[in-house]
Amino acid sequence: MRALVLEAQDQPLVVREVPTPEPGPGQARVRLKAAALNHRDVFILRGQYAAIRHPAILGSDGVGVVESTGPGTVVPVGLRVVVQPSLDWGDDLRFQGSRYRILGMPDDGTFAEAIVLPEGNLVAAPAHLDDASAGALPLAWLTAWRALVTRATLRPGERVLVTGIGGGVAQAALLLATAYGARVWVTSGDDAKIARAVELGACGGARYDQPDWGGRLVREAGGPFDVIVDGAGGEGFGQLVRALGMGGRLAFYGGTDGRWPALLPQFLFFKQVSLLATTMGSPVEFAHMVAFVAEHQLRPVVDRVFPLAEGAAAFARLESGAQFGKVVLDLT
Amino acid sequence: MRALVLEAQDQPLVVREVPTPEPGPGQARVRLKAAALNHRDVFILRGQYAAIRHPAILGSDGVGVVESTGPGTVVPVGLRVVVQPSLDWGDDLRFQGSRYRILGMPDDGTFAEAIVLPEGNLVAAPAHLDDASAGALPLAWLTAWRALVTRATLRPGERVLVTGIGGGVAQAALLLATAYGARVWVTSGDDAKIARAVELGACGGARYDQPDWGGRLVREAGGPFDVIVDGAGGEGFGQLVRALGMGGRLAFYGGTDGRWPALLPQFLFFKQVSLLATTMGSPVEFAHMVAFVAEHQLRPVVDRVFPLAEGAAAFARLESGAQFGKVVLDLT
């Protein structure tokens, strides 16, 4: 089979012929159709990740069709599935165990024509999604689901703020929260992205590079936020904390802007706020997320689809920051 | 009746004869026996609190006996009660409503021979507690209960760290968590207070004025902490965050040491930690706390009891920081 191979750190990704893996007991081989890129893949490419090995096939997302199964495997051949990217989460749903990995490093990932996975990592793909959309679902939507539903315990009618709406997790959070019956505001450094978010259902937004954007959003929303989902951190985190209302929950899954400012606890405890760290999610949350997406006919935003042979161009698109939505590889 | 009256900011508290209040519908008058001081009272004395009025009777804690009731009040005359210090919490148990006040400012508090309260603020006093101990229970133990049980969802067998063990909330957290089946470590600036905490059930402790106290506690405890209760904040908060284990919950109710350091979100989200702001608690939590104290025969630590006439000396004792346990006024 062909795969996009990372042969060494900071080397260009190259398409190589590699052996097609065979499924063992409890495993299945999926003929992949599409897989989205994530920032995690870029961090690995740049050596900014723990325990990197080479050569490696990256990729945590994917959709495809089961084409062969190992002994004792019960998933039917021919089923169209999305890949659940948590491996060995462990027994405690509150947090991952010590053997936990995200698919795509160190285990070979989805940027290939096929992959072998435990059948527990294969979930029937929502029928309303085409391959590009379904292949964009797993990591970003699982992260957004856990942040919003498990961690921030979102309720219908609440006011939600999602930062950095150009990102895949942020867009998933916008669409999930809107379908949940919440009203959602967003931030971006780009007016066009805010306008796109409003088309997707956001009530409004603010440029995070302009003064007092947090206060302006609170005024625009008619009150402080019940739930905030943030992947940026940095100095802006201080505005987020001030924009939280009584009992507000702020779930954070990233920190691309670095350290939070030095926060004064007195500004937090009277409001009974919760600052909730979160990363990706468990298989149980994945199943709930996919069922919710199917029920509400939600659709990941796809920025552009690149053929496998143009994997390097796909990475360049993701790193440019110009995209709105997921950058997807066509693996057919 | 006699009361300890704050006539103006930064004035010495004076014992004055004031009118004995009469209970209205749904209210009862309690002949008070004892009431503990809280740091909140000191903050008010120093003008470091919102919406201070003068003259005022401070005091959020108290125990006494119902001596008269208003029309329609059902609490029996003669019942020995502790005072529940949350007024108008509101309908949402997750956080207080806009009309919420803590007893003792602006409403007249318990540093008096009697008080009139809504009967919903009176809870039968645990029989095993003498007046000084029962009068020390309300604010500190309610704060500790909400921090540990409601906010941090403590489970038996977990490792708990309580900072600043000289304080009333910290001691309540130590005793509650131990009775809950948790193992508890503490911090203090004073070896003698750590030794006292060990007598009360702590597994060990560390001086927060010595290097790497957080790391040393983790090694001593045999692993990172599941739950941390903190009222200090400040630079030491960085050590607390590092001492949190996977899925760890840190409930904070104060910030006497000021701002947290600038935290890097990347050190938090992989661990799925929760930073949980909390302040005092609701009437429902108070009822659960008192029932738990009665069932487990727990006993607030009393440092010293002062007669009402020596109220100023009692405040000086609290402000000295030398005490271990609650400073209590004898109101009989």
Defining traits:
homodimer; 332 residues; alpha/beta; 2 domains; globular
Characterize this entry briefly.
Chain A has helices at residues 39-45, 131-135, 138-151, 168-179, 191-199, 213-221, 237-243, 266-269, 283-296, 311-320; strands at 2-6, 14-17, 27-36, 56-57, 63-69, 80-83, 86-87, 101-102, 114-118, 122-124, 159-162, 183-188, 204-207, 225-230, 244-252, 274-277, 302-307, 326-330. By secondary structure, chain A is of the alpha/beta class. Chain A has two domains: 2-137 and 300-330, Medium-chain alcohol dehydrogenases, catalytic domain (Quinone Oxidoreductase, Chain A, domain 1, Alpha-Beta Complex), CATH 3.90.180; 141-277, NAD(P)-binding Rossmann-like Domain (Rossmann fold).
Describe the structure in your own words.
- The structure is a homodimer of 332-residue chains.
- Chain A has 2 domains: 2-137 and 300-330, Quinone Oxidoreductase, Chain A, domain 1 (Alpha-Beta Complex); 141-277, 3-Layer(aba) Sandwich (Rossmann fold), CATH 3.40.50.
- Helices cover 27% and strands 27% of the residues of chain A.
- Chain A is built from 10 helices and 18 strands.
- In chain A, strands 3, 5, 6, 9, 10, 17 and 18 form a 7-stranded mixed beta sheet that branches. In chain A, strands 13-12-11-14-15-16 form a 6-stranded parallel beta sheet, with helices on both faces.
- In chain A, helix 8 (266-269) links the parallel strand 15 and strand 16 (274-277).
- The model of chain A has no long low-confidence stretch (mean pLDDT 96).
- Chains A and B meet through strand 15, helix 8 and strand 16 of A and strand 15, helix 8 and strand 16 of B.
- Strand 16 (274-277) of chain A pairs antiparallel with strand 16 (274-277) of chain B, so a sheet runs across the interface.
